[in-house]
Amino acid sequence: MMKGIYDHVDDEQLKKYATLAVRAGVNVQKNQLVIIHSDIKDATFARLIQTEAYDAEASHVVINWSDEQATKLFF
Fold first, then answer.
1. What does DSSP assign to residue 59?
2. Can you tell me the mean pLDDT for 7-15?
3. Residue (of 22, 18, 26, 24) closest to 48 by Cα position
4. Backbone phi, then psi, for 64, in 5-degree steps?
């Protein structure tokens, strides 16, 4: 089981959700650039999305990390 905010969801469900998001929600296509904006606390799920996007033959997946403190400093 993944620790942290995903304690209530088992690993297989989280992977299925990542697959659904990439394949149906975003519909990633071959050679497509994918940009993920994610809070650092959601790193586990962002990496699952990244893996699934590469499995869908995305050309490059960029993860743009942020956190609450950095966002507060920005504003």
1. S
2. 87
3. 18
4. -100, 105
**pTM recorded for the entire structure:** 0.84
Q: Which DSSP helix (H) or strand (E) runs through 61?
A: strand 60-66
If one compares 6 and 75, the residue with the highest pLDDT of the two is 75
DSSP assignment of 7-40 equals TTS-HHHHHHHHHHIIIIII---TT-EEEEEEEG
- Write b or e for each residue in 14-26: b if 16 or more Cβ atoms lie within 10 A of its Cβ, otherwise e: beebbbebbeeeb
Of residues 68, 58, 61, 32, the one with CA closest to residue 47: 61
Query: What single-letter amino acid sits at 75?
Result: F
Q: Which residues contact 17 (CB under 8 A, 6 or more apart)?
A: 9, 45
Q: Give strand pairing partners of 4.
A: none
